[in-house]
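ERR on first pass: missing label on line 2. Operator R.T. fixed the label and resubmitted. Corrected input:
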Amino acid sequence: MSNLAFPAESLARTGFAADQPAPALPAERAPLTKKQTAADHPTWCPGCGDFSVLALYYKLIEKRKMEHEKICTVAGIGCSSRFPYFVQAHGAHFIHGRALSFASGISLSRPDLHVFVFGGDGDAFSIGGNHFNHTARKNVKMTYVVMDNFVYGLTKKQTSPTSPIGFKSKTDVWGSMDRPINPLKQALAAGATFVARSTATNIPHLLKMMELAMDHDGFSYIECLSECIEFYPGAFDAANPRKGGAFNEVPAEHDATDEYAAYRLADAAWPGMFGLFYQVQRPTKNTNEAKIVTDLRGKVDGLADWQVLKKSFDRMK
Amino acid sequence: MSESTLAGDAAGNSPQVSSVAEAVIRIAGNSQDGIQAIGGFLARLAGRSEQEVMTFMTIPSTISGGPSIFQVRIGSGEVLSAGDEADVLLCFYDHSYANHISSLKHGGIVLFDSDHVKPSEELLTTYHHIGVPISSLTVEAVGGTGRDKGKNVYALGLIARMFSLDVPKLEQLVRERFAGKDPTIAETALTCFRSGYGHQIQGLFQTFAFHPSESSGQSQVVMSGNEALAFGLIAAGVRFGAGYPITPWSDIMELLRRELPKYGGTFIQTEDEIAAISMALGASYAGRVAVTGSSGPGISLKTEALGWAAMAEMPVVVIDVQRGGPSTGMPTNVEQSDLNIACFGGHGDSPRVVLAPSSVEDCFYTAIEAVNIARKYSTPVLLLTDQGIASRIEAFPYPDLENVCQDISPDFTPVADHKPYDLAAPDGVTRHVAPGTYIASGTYPVVTGLEHDELGHPTGSGKLHTAMNAKRRNKLRKLAEELPVPAVFGAPEGHVLLVGWGSSKGPIEEAVKQARQHGEAISGLHLKHLNPLPNGLEKVFEGFTNVVVVELNDEGLYGQGQLCTLLRARYCDARIRSVTKTDGLTWKVREILDRTLRLTK
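pass 2 clean. output:
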């Protein structure tokens, strides 16, 4: 102890008037209205697809009666990743591509929270591609909505990993030449246990997918087409009946536990299918880790932490 | 070996027993021979006999095999370093003999496996040679299976005889080592040990016995720096960590992975270094300081997220077990060349705290301090150790665990309102409320890497950026005010002040002791808090004509080591100079003294 220049202190939390008594938790809680969940006015361009994803998140919070303090909204970097600022809940705006890793740290240490991650295609499949694969593989419990617009918007029109071949951007003035990633196949191959596809223009469908995703015990991923009206206008017209396109839903007879069937659906010709492609129950990282804790805690039953440590130290005498 | 002479009549049949205060034993062989195991037994025995002990080892960076050494210094009094020269050299092969005979003190004993080693004719008069066919005798002892596995324990028996070691204690250690395995393994090992102990060593004219220990009879624990650091984090209340394997950090993550679940925690092996720090930051944000760590190359990868931690004011502890760099460098060698990246690695102005423990015991307590500083100041804290301390085994007083262990569970009591980045906070110190906390005003905070206002919402205001930069910097200035000025080792004034950091403390203090015995006015100062530096060092420097920073890194473009550069920048004092080296080995006392005297003549 004499070596400790900084002994343990009971640290007061800060950032509020210390002389105020702690408020009591309200006994009765009405569902949160949009007025209560909306924070900053979004910085997105008028007409951006992301607005409807945000509106549906508010709606989801209200409909599912989530409590303010239990919601954790996490994002990386990009237009869509500004999300946490627009939601009145505990939020974290992390660095580019690493939102899933950050969110895993929350999810694995706090089973009481709903962890939602929002981001774009660059965050998910380019700079954060590695984390997408591994978070899916580990099946960490959280919901991830990728607002895919097939272009880098925040940096003003560079090629994205989902830009189709031939797309003319500032970094591919002759047209993009690299084969785009198929996010659904990527998610399936990585071992995601919930894979769905929707679009920002079909409100009821997207809400339904978000509800299914939220209820899934594991890593739930929604690929959501969300048009960038500034740098890639009309990208998703083919999937929008109001623009003369076709919104093809996953056939009712599709077996969502059949991985190969899900692959075949994911390979459907543009504009592809929408709906739940794949959902299976596999133990989550959260439950696997919790099981180890339960097993090992059982062996030191009734001991205080310092006594557990003493057992280790006694073996090192 | 002090207080003994090795000049004697080798022909005598019954060896005389000399009492010694300390001894340095170097064991040289290949890495798969179980060299570390013998060293470990000796170190643990010393710990249980209330003696002081320090070890030093080298391991090859190859996957299997390759030359390896383990050096143990056991003393009844204070042991500050692993020793410059060995009193006894045990070598298993010709290459061990050839490479390490020069580390033996003149007149010292070389105990060699005569099945493999052919001693050099011209060295027979310089050192006392004792050959024992260790390999074949081991095979004989275990029943002639033709395999010499167990020759390390046989050799341990020879050493036990030579140093009159406590046999029941050693046998108990051997049994504990193999506890839980097939009982025949322990029995075979004990058979080897007893055969070695019972062997009549030809030509051994003298055996040794250690003085009774000077220590107070206090109970001791024996462990490596990496183990002490990992247990320190657990004692500090850390319950979540994430990491990626890299030498020499991996031991820490392996230990935390095994141990944390016993305390309700978990350690996650991530896909890469970036995910590791990101996950740790997520867990810290969720309410309890988390840990990540690596060695140099991995630390480089973590620096973007470290910048986020500085900006978002998120506490996190980052361990850097330094090795030789840059790039893949010398993965299994000792170096202190990550001070710059620890203090300054990152874009923008991103103040953070850097601490460096100086011994195995200090690893335990510094880990706790790192957690407490991270929490109190809501800041990233880097903890710099190095290969020299990570694998070194030392005995230290059994900590008062009941009082040392702390509970840092998050507080979710509802609050009326909350500003995570309150500019009115005295000294700039604010702390976050964890998600899960109800905020009655209905206004919830965002933690962010964008420059922000007091609630964490983005701002492009230059005025706010200036104010927030000041907030982030001022809280660490406040910390500097609280840091203790370390005590000078030796007299408070003189010709030379040797300044060190990290694992060099032992050799530097031994150098000071030796120099003072020879009438040199040399003192030492050891820094643990490297960023921010404690206030008031300039007053210590005033007492000396020369300030010499002793560090294991390169002198750089401008002729000074990394800490020296930092001190010169801080104090604008041209008396501050450095002696540096990057040969991948810890300091020898003689090196420190020779280099310092040459510099300050």
